[in-house]
Amino acid sequence: MSEISRRMFFGAFSAAGLAPAFPSLVLAQDQAAPSPPNVQAPALFGFDDVVKRAHDLASVPFDARSPELPEAVAKLDFDAWREIRFRPDKALLGNLGGPFRLHTFHLGHVYKTPVTVNIIRDRIVTPIAYSASLFDYGPTKFDKPLPVNLGFAGFRLHYPLNRPDVFDEVIAFLGASYFRFLGRHQHYGISARAIAIGSGNDPEEFPFFREFWIVTPEAGADHATIFGLMDGPSTTGAYRFDLYPGPETFIEITASLFPRRPIQRLGIAPLTSMFFIGENDKRFSDDVRPELHDSDGVLIHSSTGEWIWRPLRNPTKPETSTFLDKDVRGFGLLQRDRTFEHYQDLDLVYELRPSYWIEPREPWGEGQVQLIELPTADASNDNVVACWIPKTPPGPGQAMSFGYRITAIMAPDRPSPGGWAVNTFHTGKRTPESFAPLPPNTQRFIIDFTGGDLAFFINNPEQVQVVATTTNGGIQRSVLAANPHVDGFRATIDLQLDRGQSADLRVFLKATNRTLTETWTFPWKAE
What we know:
By secondary structure, the protein is mainly β. It is built from four helices and 35 strands.
């Protein structure tokens, strides 16, 4: 899988496609539909109609022809495209007094696939027509007017998220099947996708949304409903997004997939993020900022009730980690480190970037949480993907439906209820805990645990035990000490492993037979 440029927002690899498969009359925002006599009333529209369209679309071959955009639009670079902004006074959805406002994105730069955006009111569909009057073009100029059927690159919704008198951006759909959303006082970082196909492969397939429908919220509405029609070479899909803004904004997602051909690596609820450097990975240490990442680990709530934490890395070559399970309870890419001094970035505010947590609404059966980590030489690339891969994906002609909740969280102790790993360090040299050099082929791992009930034991550390295991090699030393700086404990583990060998290390804390923390796990290969 190629790296995804942060500068290109969320869809630098937008799949090629055509205009919407189901075109309809497009009306300008300030026009009224003509009312000729003896015309049948418009059909009522709902999510079932999107499902039917996805089903019917899957029965015909995928058409990858690219649309013909005006040359001036197709050649827009990032800086020129970024200058084109939707005019807030043209925002849609406010006609019923609801709390949401809709803005569209202009085509250009890498966003060359037009998307149809519709408004639904009383189950009647009205497409939004492109009009130059919707945008402030700033210094970006065109020699001649753009066509009225140009279309849009995507859209975003605004909502009084942080203040009751300000409409803040709360969610955006832009590029392929990418979307991002925010909770209160959060800043964009991690992205979500509707689906992932062939993650870790080159090339990876990127299905895309052809069309969206946004239901007009009424006054006092606490959520917004969005329908999406997805298409791609391997599958079509119908998606429903019920967005609930708040301190921890969440989306209830319902989806139906209709494969055109066998899919070998179907990723459900995929998350995409960036990890460049952190306290556990300082391969690039010339940046004045100590850490640079949108997420620092993947958390998994297994069907057995175990909470598993895996810190992220920036590997020297692509790495894939799998966590087998049946009916996984949840997983997500988390940003736990919320300390500004660990990032020292006044503009990008990495400490305010959300974690995304996935919770299935029904059993997902056998499969695996897959984590893909790609090497990156800077912080401009999304190089981390996490998703659920079912053991038996649907084949052509077989529908697959599933649902889940995705939540944008900030608190570092969420959602794990017990103690959690706050720091991970490792070295093959001497450390403050031991002034003598480590034995040959030995790596020292230091994990700080905090939260849960650990503070209760901090004055009686002898009652807490560290449990460390490895799939290969041997644990030469394990030491546990109270760490008042995190109101918890520091575990020091020495792993001896022959050169060329690989091992998965697992560590957790307990008191007698009571588990106090999640299970920290980390893969290691002795070079």
